[in-house]
Amino acid sequence: MSDINRTIEELLVDYAEALRDGCIPAFLKSLTSEEGRRIAYSRGFWEATDVVRVLNSAGFADKAVTPNVSLFISRVDAKIASRLKKARALSRRKRTARARHLT
Amino acid sequence: MNRRLRNALKGLMDPDIERRRRVMDSFVRATFESFIRYLYRYLGNEVECEDVLEDVYADIWENPARLCNVTSDRELLRTVYLYYMRKRLREVYRRINRNLHLSQEGLKRLVAPELGVFEMTSQSELRQLLNRMLSRLKARERRAIELWMEGMSNRAIANELKTTVGAVKMLKFRTMLKLRKMLCDHCRED
Questions:
Q1: Is A57 in Cβ contact with B176 (below 8 Å)?
Q2: What is the ipTM, given to two decimal places?
Q3: Residue ranges of the domains in chain A?
Q4: pLDDT given for residue B190 in this prediction
């Protein structure tokens, strides 16, 4: 991804590779302003990205499944607990502010 | 939709947040595989998929209203993508967008696009369809795509096909457009 001013074909292939290898941010950061403009106006690029995603999904998505779902569930539960805690702290602050306002 | 998932969805509509929290366990178990596979389409990175999905589930727990009328697996995936996943996907990339040369609109379109023709096709359907379409390609085009799907670099593919890297890139681009046309035609026929 080091070439400058890549053609639209090169940009698509680089995007496909980045998606396959899981490094989309690196691809996005590698874009020059000229390339960004080129992408924005290329219908072919946008059409081909649909297929890139399909290929990515059909070819590689199976490896994304974590064997340990229980571990993931505990992560989700911790996230929910943290949101609950924040919501409770917020309502407590509001209550205190209201009580202070009344007195 | 299986009974376990239907019950989990019903439980998610409970106004009590603690009860909803307990239901999340069975909801995550019932949906994790399909959700993470779907997210992988856009991220290509299992660690990021899990991070995004963690927020998606927490969002669902916080505000499950969008899922109240869901009756099928496909509808569930569609609703979750439209109302929960897309927001999170955009957030992931908004963070790095400060120094990017791609417009905000372009970025949205690239990382969290609108639902297209193929977005709601299931994994197995896609695989079958793709195999059928690949068999209709020219031998060289098919080989280039197959080698790429095996994880080979452009240079390795060029060596295998005895051509240049530039020619491989061109070939892949043309083949992807050809595949898209074939897939679109197939979907239209259906």
A1: no
A2: 0.81
A3: 1-65, 66-103
A4: 65
